[in-house]
Amino acid sequence: MLDLTTRYLGLTLKNPLIAASSGYTSNLEHITQLEQNGIAAVVLKSIFEEEIINQFHESMGGLDKFHSNMEYLDYYDYELKNENINNYVQLIRNAKAKVSIPIIASINCVSNSEWTFFAKKLQEAGADALELNIFIMPSDQTKTGEQIENTYIDIINRVRKEVKIPVSVKMSSYFSNLSAMIQRISETKIDGIVLFNRFISADFDIDKIAVSPSYVFSNDKEYSLPLRWTAIMSSKIKCSIAASNGIHDSEALIKLLLAGADAVQIASTIYLNGMGQIDFMLKNLEDWMQSKNYTSISHFKGALSYNNLKNPAELERVQFMRYFSDHAIDNK
Amino acid sequence: MENILEYLKEERAQAWRDELRKKIKSKDRTAIVRVKMHEQDHDIRSRNNLEVNLGLKKEEAVIEAQRCLDCVTPTCIKGCPVNINIPKFVKKIEKEDFLGAAKVLKETNSLPAVCGRVCPQEKQCEQECFYTQKLKLAPVAIGYLERFAADFERESGMSSTPDVAENNGIKVASIGSGPAALAWASDMARFGYKVTVFEALHEIGGVLKYGIPEFRLPNKIVDFEIDNMKKMGIEFRTNFIVGKTMTIDDLREAGYKAFFVGSGAGLPRFMNIPGENAIGVFSANEYLTRINLMNAAKINFDTPVLSGLNVAIIGGGNTAMDSVRTAKRLGAEHAMIIYRRSEEEMPARIEEVKHAKEEGIEFLNLNNPVEYKFDKNGKVTSMILQKMVLGEPDASGRRSPVPLENSEYEIPVDTVVVAVGTSPNPLIPASVSGLKTTRWGTIVVNEDMQSSIEDIYAGGDIVRGGATVILAMGDGRTAAAAMHKNLAKKLLTK
Q1: Which residues on chain A are in Cβ contact (under 8 Å) with B317?
Q2: pLDDT at A270
Q3: Given this model, what pLDDT does residue A161 score?
């Protein structure tokens, strides 16, 4: 009997597959289906601070002649926030009543304002853990990198002060010294780090000569970024690590576990291959474990992490050297 | 519209108007400086609850009326939601026919003494005045003159009751007794309907009574106007909650043929920040209603309101100004406005902000509360404020407040009044199936103020979320005209 259980954020998961925050985790029907297909935990679709700010601006722009009283609308953004949070709280309550897998709430913050206080409401609603999806767009030229980094730490500390449930941070890879930042975050009272957030980028439509959204799903090669950083950091930090981004199949799942991830988050592969992909990945994981005589995840988790490698410098190599140059020419 | 313009033209052509126009040259009229409103001294008024504005003297009113040029095209009327014949009533004042002026006001406005006090004339009729638009001078003080004429009539003891048509026996009802409902009721009574006004509270007047403090609008002024309506045959029923005491269906069965919903926006909004449930944190609705309607400012009453020394009011609208000035009158040493934008973006009337400043109100603009702290008994003791800066303009054109990171600081407070707006009263929308509402919870109406249900009309805050008194009254009048047209077609021609 193979043991696929793993510990993530202090929670015991029946296997290492977590449904990442996405449209699939925004309603009860899909959450139930994810559980039925074998997912071990669900990160609910993020409640977006930025989205609510945009919603407020849209509301202000869509006013008709009957709704022009500024006194009435002056603080309408709070109304929208409360409406969104109440709906979210209800989703948590409904999910907790319906499924038995852990439900991880998620907040997308772009500032350290009063948003952090809403974390408490999500805890009260019954969330098993909270994922902070933080990204501060480094487009403000008046801010130093240090100021931005301090904002991350400030948000974490504020939220940690408010809630007792486990808290993780889904972070981006855009830091000048990523390992130092991961280390710094791990030294707060955080329970886990998700490597990494994936962002929608802008693209150009060359026919219309206009800006257009880029392809929304990850591709199956993108896992190499979380793979490297999970391998480098997993043996250096004490908190949990979940890998995310480009994990489409069992091979990538196994690689990330070998790198030291406690769990992995998947989304695009469910969209592209259907819910059956969860079971398929788990079965393949089991087959591989059997072929290698592993009986539990803990037997091989982190086997290729920094501390377990004879030559960890391989993980840090970034420049094309002769081998890669020749490889490129040979493959022409 | 053509008829109205024609009517105004005919009125203007009357001999007495022509004579007045010739009496003083236009250049001499425009040379007159706009009158100043008499006010109680700010040191004295901030310690009493008497009206701040004291009104104009007869001579002052006449001189101010002389400033009006009696324009061929009176643009000021365009700015009035109830279409008061402004030049006509102003010229009546110039002619010193003050009772005549009041009568003109009452042709289209059932609450002239109220509107003369609380209307934002600077954004309505006075903004459209020839002085403002073309001469770039201070407009004719239409609001002050309206108040003067209405007060003169009331104090003269010769108040006129508008003529009403013969009773047609058709029963109609309003839900609520605020300005929209009162304007609707008054017009429907004039058309000859049997009008009942149902009010949930024990006092008639809606927001005019519970929302606006005595120092801005004395209750006796509202009561006088309501008494006048009673004389017109309008029945008022208090402590009657439509949707609970009786539903609209019950009232239909009782013979009512059409309804006007003017149930207002009485549902307080909060920010939902930590500590907002602490003792001493009020909604502006509760704070003002308890003081204005329930004697909570009197310590010998059973349920007095807390009168703190450090009182913070959150918001920048008229309700916030009313609350902060009330707090000052209740003895606050520091009565503070906490507003997250700058003064330029404040929705409050300029006059209210000016009065508040004169009375020593402290303005903490570009500050926003993020948390209230309280003691072991749950009583608020302090608040955490975050400093704000102004960002890019939002779609409404106003610059958005953006939190300044790591700028929080703590100030002591013992009373907090949250005046960040209200939501529409949900009772009627919830109790009438098929009644369409907007995403804001307001009732959807067409140009005639008719809802998605044929016999239900609506106006005021329940349609607009928040409306000025005069806009609400305009809704009531529009609804009355359309309702009368429909009922006459259906019931009176049979």
Answers
A1: 70-71, 74
A2: 97
A3: 86
